[in-house]
């Protein structure tokens, strides 16, 4: 001991006795907590279990697994998968170094049971996970040991689908998926990968199911599913691999050959989709204005409702204009007859298609009574009492600022227009310093009766202005516009880049979407003569997605299990396309060259794998929080 410690010992013995000599000596020496040392980066190790791993003829329903350190299980009810599936949820308890699983269902005879923990088990301190830990035993004489593996992707955008049940049916009937629980199951990890373990010899049908009610059957409308067209027959082969031991990050220590059992198939790709099974019915209607009401529906309409007045005089006369909204889940009705919109209550008969209990569309008739309560008028000042109130026509336009050479200038009105003509607008281009009238076309938008598109072949780098004289435009309700004028410019030719992609190996109807860095489509071009051209692109980074448009309807279509129709195929280009100003790029893309799970660039993948790398130890700050008394010993 040094002199300071010798002086401190009698004091410690006097106050606390000899039993605390070591503690007093440490305190008087002002020793801080341990700093540095090896960091525990090893996951817990299996020590023992009841029953033994791979034990046969086990009749109990309790499984206990012991590890070499304190452990935890992340969300056991969600992450621990037991096969065959259990009707009643098992009890999973963590007690120190032990996991205790109580199976509530009666065990089936001659069956291999698997408790698959995935990555859920980790040590209690550093959270080092045990990867792909599973435990198996059998109630019969044999342990089934075959495996099937693969990946589950979103059929529409190739996102890896996590935490989704994947299962096997030995029953080859199509109805097994809808009426019976799976024979063997697993769940996908954060990379969308799955491994179904302890499978018996045989031939199986393979499915994925986003199981809403945990009954391991496809029996709920809206559950996302995937199915394989062909059957799978699990098998194996003996194989070898090279395992490398490293002395450090750059120096190899040893390379040894390891013999292992390679289970097949291990590369199955399933594509998850939702069927179009929404039940069709009307939601609460609304009378938005005296002259406007809206019918809302829970699902897109294939055909528009038939609307008629219940009272006699105008039952058959045209008294409204119909405006289907985007997505066709709502329809606006603009009342054109002043005698109708003047009523406090409009009584209607609506005939439309509604889903019955079997999800079949049947004719339905509803009676509606739409009430409009006029807002209380604001008090007018004395100066304005004798002035007639004028409400100008309201509209919006994108004809301002910088307009892309590929854009269409549009006008969106607040209410339907009457007799809108091209002559009502004046479009001029600046030539030198002179504004010169130019020709253009004006047409009503096919999807929105309130929108009108002005089309002209814009010149690169040109300046334009558009004007409308006062009271030139009139709505069906007599509202007219104020004078309007707006100027805009078109980008120069050298501000744009161009991309041409040769499509290799796709000889059917298909289209390519150009995507931004958020995986959102910006443009869509059909494949023609073996390629697609995206001209006049702003400098940026783009990505590409191809859809095999089987029915040529210009959109991606989902699948249908009852008719064995798979969703339309989607491919992602693994490249990013960096477009620079005044550049022309030509690329070649073979959509089928890579497996689907290796196509989508990680930069636009939303379901990125979790980082399983343990955090490195902070040697500098470690131990400071526990060093409670830096200036001296414990306060007696």
UniProtKB/TrEMBL annotation:
Task: Please name the source species.
Answer: Tannerella sp. oral taxon BU063 isolate Cell 6/7/9
Recorded hits in InterPro entries, A to Z, give:
SbsA_Ig
Name of the protein: SbsA Ig-like domain-containing protein
> What keywords would UniProt list here?
Signal
Q: Where is the SbsA Ig-like domain?
A: 40-139
- Region Disordered, residue ranges: 600-636
| Compositionally skewed regions (Basic and acidic residues) per UniProt | 608-630
One short Pfam name that applies is Big_5
Signal sequence, renumbered to the chain:
1-27
């Amino acid at each position: 001991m040094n002199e300071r410690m010798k002086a401190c010992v009698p004091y410690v013995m006097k106050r606390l006795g000899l039993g605390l000599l070591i503690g007093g000596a440490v305190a008087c020496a002002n020793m801080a907590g341990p700093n540095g040392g090896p960091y525990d980066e090893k996951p817990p190790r299996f020590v023992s279990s009841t029953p033994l791993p791979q034990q046969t003829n086990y009749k109990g329903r309790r499984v206990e697994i012991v590890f070499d350190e304190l452990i935890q299980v992340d969300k056991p009810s969600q992450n621990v998968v037991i096969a065959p599936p259990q009707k009643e949820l098992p009890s999973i308890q963590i007690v120190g170094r032990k996991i205790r699983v109580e199976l509530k269902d009666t065990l089936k005879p001659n069956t291999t049971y698997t408790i698959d923990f995935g990555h859920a088990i980790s040590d209690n301190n550093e959270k080092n996970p045990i990867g792909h830990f599973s435990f198996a035993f059998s109630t019969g004489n044999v342990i089934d040991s075959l495996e099937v593996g693969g990946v589950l992707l979103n059929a529409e955008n190739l996102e890896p689908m996590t935490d989704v049940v994947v299962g096997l049916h030995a029953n080859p009937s199509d109805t097994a998926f809808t009426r019976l629980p799976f024979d063997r199951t697993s769940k996908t990890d954060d990379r969308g990968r799955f491994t179904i373990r302890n499978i018996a010899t045989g031939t199986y049908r393979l499915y994925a199911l986003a199981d809403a009610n945990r009954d391991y059957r496809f029996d709920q409308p809206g559950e996302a599913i995937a199915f394989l067209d062909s059957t799978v027959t699990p098998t194996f082969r003996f194989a070898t691999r090279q395992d490398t031991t490293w002395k450090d990050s750059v120096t190899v220590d040893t390379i040894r050959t390891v013999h292992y059992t390679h289970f097949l198939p291990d590369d199955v790709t399933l594509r998850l989709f939702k069927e179009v099974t929404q039940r069709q019915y009307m939601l609460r209607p609304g009378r938005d204005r005296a002259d406007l009401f809206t019918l809302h529906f829970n699902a897109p309409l294939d055909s528009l409702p038939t609307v008629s007045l219940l009272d006699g005089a105008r039952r058959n006369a045209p008294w409204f204009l119909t405006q289907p909204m985007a997505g066709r889940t709502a329809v606006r009705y603009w009342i054109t007859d002043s005698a109708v919109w003047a009523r406090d209550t409009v009584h209607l008969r609506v005939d439309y298609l509604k889903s019955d209990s079997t999800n079949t569309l049947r004719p339905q008739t509803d009676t509606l009574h739409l009430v409009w309560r006029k807002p209380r008028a604001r008090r007018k000042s004395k100066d304005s009492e004798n002035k007639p109130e004028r409400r100008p026509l309201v509209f919006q336009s994108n004809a301002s600022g910088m307009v892309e050479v590929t854009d269409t200038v549009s006008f969106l009105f607040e209410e339907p227009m009457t007799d809108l003509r091209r002559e009502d607008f004046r479009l001029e281009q600046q030539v030198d310093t002179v504004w010169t009238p130019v020709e253009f076309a004006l047409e009503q938008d096919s999807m929105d009766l309130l929108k009108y598109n002005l089309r002209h072949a814009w010149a690169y780098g040109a300046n334009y202005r558009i004007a409308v004289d006062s009271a030139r435009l009139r709505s069906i309700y007599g509202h007219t516009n104020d004078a309007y004028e707006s100027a805009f410019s078109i980008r120069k030719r050298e501000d744009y880049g161009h991309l041409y992609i040769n499509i290799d190996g796709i000889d059917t109807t298909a289209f390519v979407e150009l995507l931004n860095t958020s995986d959102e489509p910006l443009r869509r071009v059909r494949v023609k003569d073996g390629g697609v051209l995206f001209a006049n692109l702003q400098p940026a980074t783009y990505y590409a997605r191809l859809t095999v448009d089987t029915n040529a309807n210009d959109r991606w279509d989902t699948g249908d299990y009852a008719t064995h129709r798979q969703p339309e195929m989607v491919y992602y280009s693994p490249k990013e396309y960096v477009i620079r100003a005044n550049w022309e790029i030509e690329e070649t893309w073979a959509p089928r060259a890579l497996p689907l799970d290796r196509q989508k660039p990680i930069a636009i993948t939303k379901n990125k794998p979790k980082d399983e790398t343990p955090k490195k130890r902070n040697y500098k700050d470690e131990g400071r929080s526990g060093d409670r008394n830096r200036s001296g010993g414990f306060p007696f």
